[in-house]
Design brief:
The chain is α/β, with parallel strands linked by helices. It has two domains: 71 residues, Orthogonal Bundle (Helix Hairpins), CATH 1.10.287; 74 residues, Transcription elongation factor, GreA/GreB, C-terminal domain (Chitinase A, domain 3). It contains three helices and seven strands, in the order βααββββαββ. It has a five-stranded mixed sheet. The chain has a two-stranded parallel ribbon with strand order 1-2. The longest helix has 30 residues. It is elongated. The protein starts with 5 loop residues before the first strand and ends with a strand.
Length: 156
């Protein structure tokens, strides 16, 4: 079964690889030890420590599977030609036409999205709206707070 292809920067992929290594080599062993210790307490039906450890094991194994599937389908974002418009991996500086505020966003894949840090997914309404547009163009975006017009000021 092939999963959905998702874009990610090389740095983002390295962070996920490190998380996977930690989960497999450390977290998994820690949880197994907790389960073993909890089993020694006796009756598993009323053993909260055992139940908690099993829940954590399910989470760890689920995250490992999720990361492995993601990495099989990940597409590394390469340096983009800014002359063809905004693309994944670019930093775009935009101006809100209504209040003249200027913001910068880095367009990243969904796994790296962190809007509070200025990283927006290429799959988000804002990210999708910017893709392919060039400096000087005005983009109209429908967001939950209403329709907003942005002008692309710079692409890095």
């Amino acid at each position: 079964m092939s999963g959905k292809q998702t874009y990610i920067t090389l740095e983002g992929l390295e962070r996920l690889k490190q998380e996977l290594i930690t989960l497999k080599n450390t977290k998994r062993k820690d949880v197994l030890e907790r389960i073993q210790i909890a089993k020694e307490y006796g009756d598993l039906s009323e053993n909260a420590e055992y139940t908690d450890a099993r829940d954590e094991q399910a989470f760890v194994e689920g995250r490992i599977a999720e990361l492995e599937e993601f990495m099989k389908n990940a597409i590394i974002i390469k340096e983009q030609n800014k002359n063809i418009g905004v693309n994944i991996g670019n930093i775009v500086k935009i101006k809100d036409k209504s209040n003249k505020t200027v913001k910068e966003y880095e367009i990243v894949g969904s796994q790296e999205s962190d809007p509070m840090s200025g990283k927006i997914s290429n799959e988000s309404p804002l990210g999708k709206a910017f893709l392919g547009h060039k400096v000087g163009e005005t983009i109209t975006v429908s967001l939950p707070k209403g329709v907003i017009e942005y002008e692309i000021v710079e692409i890095k």
